[in-house]
Amino acid sequence: MVTIILLLSCDFWAVKNVTGRLMVGLCWWNHIDEDGKSHWVFESRKASSQESKTVSEAESRIFWLGLIACPVLWVVFAFSALFSFRVKWLAVVIMGVVLQGANLYGYIRCKVGSRKNLTSMATSYLGKQFLRQTTGDDQPS
């Protein structure tokens, strides 16, 4: 059990600090200011001609496939441990779900942007759709 948790922690660190930066140009971390307040930072590298050569589409797909498949696999393990009454393994499985889910959440926030940007994009889109319906314009903008 200890070995699995140590390997999970190493995987979490490697995906968060190395793989995400190299394969897709995304990174996230926690910053604590002078007042002691915690701030989460989600960044994505700006696309440039040099970066497009280093970040390939195949590497990006492999990264996202692994990032999505691992939490799903750990959830399957959680249900398996729960329904087979193997409570001692449930703690390991919960750690796997939490660590893999945290990486998935962090990178989705990096890719899509902060919630404020999501909210403003959704509001803008809905506003455009409403305006298009009221004016009778069927052309997409």
Describe this structure in words.
α3 packs antiparallel against α4 (87-112). Helices cover 73% and strands 10% of the residues. It has helices at residues 2-24, 49-54, 57-83, 87-112, 115-135; strands at 26-32, 38-44. The model has no long low-confidence stretch (mean pLDDT 80). A two-stranded antiparallel ribbon has the order 1-2. The protein has one domain. The chain has five helices and two strands, in the order αββαααα. With 141 residues, the chain is mostly helical.
Relative helix content:
over 70%
The number of domains is 1
**Looking at the chains present, what oligomeric state does this protein adopt?**
single chain
Strand order of the largest sheet: 1-2
**Outline, from the CA principal axes?**
extended
Give a short account of the largest sheet. Answer: 2 strands, antiparallel
Counted beta strands:
2
Uncertain spans, ≥5 residues at pLDDT below 50?
none
Q: Over the alpha carbons, how many angstroms does the gyration radius reach?
A: 20 Å
The secondary structure category is: mainly alpha
**Helix and strand sequence:** HEEHHHH
Strand content: 5-15%
Number of helices: 5
Roughly how many Å apart are the termini?
55 Å
Mean pLDDT: 80
Signal peptide: 1-20
Organism: Vicugna pacos
Pfam families: DUF846
Family: Belongs to the TVP23 family.
